[in-house]
Design brief:
By secondary structure, the protein is α/β, with parallel strands linked by helices. It has one domain: CBS-domain (Roll). Helices cover 31% and strands 26% of the residues. The strands form three sheets. A three-stranded mixed sheet has the order 3-4-5. The two termini are 31 Å apart.
């Protein structure tokens, strides 16, 4: 996965911190297969596609709250049964602080990043930490 070059401007754009390319699965993918992909790639979410359209996201939180907590492991559910939809997005040219605010307000840890309405990357809380943990980035 590629991270964009980090500049020292405190008004940096989301695109400077997003991860690309986006990894996704089909909505009819078994949840166990999606979880194995997330584990093998060391990521906390996958976008969900129906055809060429992104329709949702499956996250570690979905796996724990909707599979483990409800005892659905033995039922072999499909991603479409537990994904979070609709997909929340934010434009790559918005300031990184706007992503932090939106994610906090929506109580989400992953958000799809768009450019001209096309999904081009993902931003996670971990990516925000890179911004806030680097003191040279802050203007305050």
């Amino acid at each position: 996965m590629r991270k964009r070059k980090v500049a020292s401007n405190p008004n940096e754009e989301i695109g400077d911190y997003m991860v690309s390319p986006v990894l996704s699965v089909s909505s009819d993918t078994p949840v166990q297969e999606a979880a194995q992909l997330m584990e093998s790639k060391h990521i906390g979410s996958l976008l969900v596609k129906e055809g060429e359209t992104f329709v949702g996201i499956i996250t570690e939180t979905d796996l724990t709250r909707k599979i483990v907590a409800q005892g659905l492991q033995d039922k072999n559910p499909k991603v479409s049964e537990i994904m979070t939809a609709p997909l929340q997005t934010i434009d790559c040219h918005e300031p990184i602080v706007d992503a932090n605010q939106l994610m906090a307000n929506k109580r989400i840890r992953h958000i799809a990043v768009t450019d001209n309405d096309a999904v081009v990357g993902m931003l996670s809380v971990k990516d925000l930490i890179h911004y806030y943990a680097n003191p040279r980035m802050r203007s305050w």
